[in-house]
Amino acid sequence: MPDPVRLRLSALDQLPDRDPEETAEWGASLDAVAAAAGTHRAGQLVRRTVEHAQATGIDVPSLLETDYINSIPTGAEPEFPGDEAMEARITAWNRWNAAAMVTRGARYGVGGHIATFASAAWLYETGFQHFFRGKDAADAPGSGDQLFIQGHASPGIYARAFLDGRLTEAHLDNFRQESGGAGLPSYPHPRRLPWLWEFPTVSMGIGPLSAIYQARFNRYLENRGIKDTSASHVWAFLGDGEMDEPESTAALALAGREGLDNLTFVINCNLQRLDGPVRANFKIVQELEAQFRAAGWNVIKTLWGSAWDDLLRADTTGALVRRLREVPDAQFQTYATRDVAYIRDHFFGTDPALAQLGASLSDAKIAECFHTSRGGHEPRKVYAAYRAAVEFKGAPTVVLAQTVKGHTLGDGFQSRNANHQMKKLSLDQFRTMRDLLELPIPDSELSGDLVPYAHPGPDSPEVRYLQERRAALGGPAPARRVHQVVLPEPSEKAFKALEKGSGSQEVATTMVIVRLVKDLMREKESGRRWVPIVPDEARTFGMESMFPSAGIYSPLGQTYESVDRDQLLHYKEAVNGQILNEGITEAGSMADFTAAATSYATHGEPMIPFYIFYSMFGWQRTGDQMWALGDQLGRGFIVGATAGRTTLTGEGLQHADGHSPLIASTNPAALTYDPAFAYEVGVIVKDGLRRMYGPDAEDVFYYLTVYNEPKPQPAMPEGVEEGILRGLYRFNEGSAPSAEAPRVQLMASGTAIHWVLEAQRLLAEQWGVAADVWSATSWSELRRDALSCDAAQLRGEDRVPYVTRALRGARGPVLAVSDWMRAVPDQISQWVEQDYSSLGTDGFGLSDTREAARRHFGVDPQSIVVAALDRLARAGDVKRETVLAAREAYGL
């Protein structure tokens, strides 16, 4: 019979084999080993051979998955540099206070999470004691390491800050009670606790994505000569369940491709997510290992504690390793809660060799191994993993640390499906926890209704040790500091050009802002701090002229000859390139923006990010990241280009944006503008630079919508700067045939100003109506001002909204028009004293010419005329027949 092995198709069959007989002998030898010693032994030889080949420089592909055992053998672990007993006591205090804080808060129903930190305590404590650099680190001054803390573990971080003297009992008792001004936010929220937290992480998936781009931005700063960040390390602490979020793994290949060895992911693999097992019928650790290895990461598995060493040494047949690999995660969760008899039966009883191994083990040994002994619970194991991670060069590292969720919280918590929702311990459970942790807390303190906080004293050996370790590593962590660096005001030249207008030349506002930024990048002092970010649409926005001059950032530079190298606007990558062209990833581009927008605090280096994108794919697609940006107190310019529902021709429903300003208006940190003219863009950007990078810098960011429809740009009228920034000013007054002629106020934003100007002409020439035209640069800023005035009125202050004052005395009804859904201009309706109505582009977008699309939505000049006449007819200023005549004349 033909050899079945030879019948298998192999990609290697298409390559020449210099010695087929030798190849066959290797296969036959492997078959012989499998027949004589079993497939486990044969597999072990293959893996050993692959490891040897890789260690000696022979080019062979890496295995994507290894056995379900630790990557670092016990014998290869480095000497532990700390006082393990002392660090165990410190960790015990922190475990206690984290649980006490959440339990005490449960009286008020504010919630909290206990089990996450309980499982991950040593993952954090080992880092704080030995690895995480503070802001005063000698080799990373002002930067230190960047710590992305898992949101649900925040009680443990607060408990550590309490032990360190950075927080008081009063702080802990205000956990999740912030309205009084002295509370602790539920999760890492820099805006709520700006001296402690640097990075918001609890919107799952954003933390890992942001961490990757933070590590990359650190390299960007270094390669561009802005700051030496070579000693800064990014640590991201994640949950295994969180890795299901698409954002969690979206940029793994980027980190691997660019060799970001300044980055370490620590994934707490307690095998549980919010409702139950992460991979009930599978193994999350093995899945993640394969995923990260495939993306080019160094993978360190820290699964088993030292109690497993004897078991693994006794596994001469491979039965134990095989069983560890095949048992699904949900069953391991069950083993952590069941008695020894169950484990002997269900784990060891499945294989004769395994049963023999189990028979040699005491009940105590089995209970220790399966109930508590995990790599993530032993500081020596964790230290070994972290040491290997920071010493590994050429690739990022992920540490897959296995733990038990709810560890040390007692049988009622450990490995229970519901433990994520369990918010408190009983006093009996606290007594059990105290005994397990060996804390000197007398029963007398556990006799009341309220569990006490516990502290060994500010001069205790534990506190002195903790503070000495932090001092050696550069001060407290996490910590956020702002050393205000004022950027000089740019020269007036670039802005003056916009104030003059374009004459008869037609220019789209998308091109206006790109040209402005290009000019500002030439500024001697601040030009190098601009960070242009674009998701593979630079040519769409006319940014290709930046390629040769600014360069596209790449840590490898340009290792090829560009196909357009002989052209003036050739594609150019450079190690010190200024542009971040991320490919088709708005999420990655937004993560870039966040890293740059917060560099003023993270590194003490203010940068000016300028992120431009198809407007539809900004707030709609990455609004969660923009919300986190506001939380992180980011500063910079976000630009929604090709804006509007009718202005972008031919692209259809999923590209035609009619609502992004409405979404943006929900973010208190976002200043949203919809400029109509080039000079408005200039005034807004100039003021934005002052507000975000001047001596009284504010924690805001700007969102500007710009359009791809070329139009003549007028010169700036005198005295309109305040109105542009406040959100409204009168662009021009309509001429009237007589003093008694009907008058209407036409208000528009963005490109709609041009439809309104045409409507103004038609109203005057064809219907004898005078129309004043107003440019509404920001509907949301007008609304915010009005809301602020309303609140002041309730406090007894006499304040009138700006929009009310601006329109006071304007005769006739107000008709607001935009290329957005009507809810955008309707934001200000209640503060307009005149009759107010609006026109907009409600509904799905569609592909057609601009003129046809605008007629479809009823926002073209003729439709505006009819709507204006209708409001005048309602007021009795024109006859109803006039409205009907206009409708018929325009074919509406």
From TrEMBL:
EC annotation from Swiss-Prot or TrEMBL: 1.2.4.1
Top-rank taxon, per record: Bacteria
Task performed by this protein: Component of the pyruvate dehydrogenase (PDH) complex, that catalyzes the overall conversion of pyruvate to acetyl-CoA and CO(2).
Entry binding sites for Mg(2+): 240, 270, 272
GO molecular function terms noted in the UniProt entry: magnesium ion binding; pyruvate dehydrogenase (acetyl-transferring) activity
Domain Transketolase-like C-terminal: 727-860
Catalytic activity of the protein: N(6)-[(R)-lipoyl]-L-lysyl-[protein] + pyruvate + H(+) = N(6)-[(R)-S(8)-acetyldihydrolipoyl]-L-lysyl-[protein] + CO2
Pfam hit, one: Transketolase_C_1
This protein's name: Pyruvate dehydrogenase E1 component
Cofactor: Mg(2+); thiamine diphosphate
